[in-house]
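Work Package 3 (structural annotation) set out to generate three-dimensional models for the target panel prioritized at the project kickoff. During this period the team completed the workflow that converts sequence records into discrete structure tokens, so that structures can be stored uniformly alongside our sequence database. As a representative example, we reproduce one entry of 312 residues exactly as it appears in the project archive.
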Amino acid sequence: MKRVPDPLASWWQRRAAWPALAPADLAARKAGRSVSVVVPARDEADTVAGVVAPLVQELVPAGLVDEVLVVDGRSTDGTAVLAAEAGARVVTVPEQLDGRALSGKGGALWWGQQQAAGDLLVFLDADVAPSHARSVTALLTPLLVEPAVRFVKAAFDRPLTVGGVLHRGSGGRVTEMTARPLINAWWPQLAGFVQPLSGELAATRELLAQLPFATGYGLEIGMLVDVLHLAGIDAMAQVDIGERHHRHHSDDVLGRMAAEVLAAALARHPAGPHADQLVQFQREGEGFGRRTSAVAVTSLPPVATLPVRRAS
């Protein structure tokens, strides 16, 4: 049995807190590099302009962001028009390319990274409301402050609303019930990520170009594990962006998500020993608190194998 390695604690300290720098101050650290924000969107007319507008109005004038690119997944509700009106450059995902179907978020991001011009790419979700420019500023900070960092994940609280009642910290059910146990078992180096299935991240173009992109719900966990294997944990970081409100899904959809997350994990670790600890997170004040619990799986032998049958 392998325990969560001690270096995780030091990684958490080094990779969870970053200086709060103004966009113009961060822009001064770009050292000739350009930044593209890529937003995959399919039928997100209600929210896409709210994601694009703060970036165009705040971060482009500050010189931090050079391009806001919306990758439209062939929407039918006017998403592309609204994104363009908000100031984004819009490209449409082709249905196929070289015989490959470009489906889902993975297909949009795979296409988007090829269309984007930036040396540093930020991926944002289009279904978030309200959206703030500070999320992009936070995601770019480790890339521009720490030379060793090449990949940054967003950490956040995800509330769940049921019957009009807001339950803080109760969202992200596939994360808590599928992804986190798998990661703790097979890749304990990644146990420090608060939101391993977050689709909001920043990375160097050079690193992203070396990764496969799953077209289904296995995209995020596959990318996280692949980056670990390719670049190592010290090239990875996360930033706290506060709270994210996403749409919530029915149990059958969550089941399909979990199955694809599991399939992506199995493809990268089909067998082998597992760790015996689980690291979880709770909001504590202005940050996240880690808690560790034992994961012990024991079993009793078949009664037929016992040498003596015992009477009560």
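Residues 251-268 form the longest helix (18 residues).
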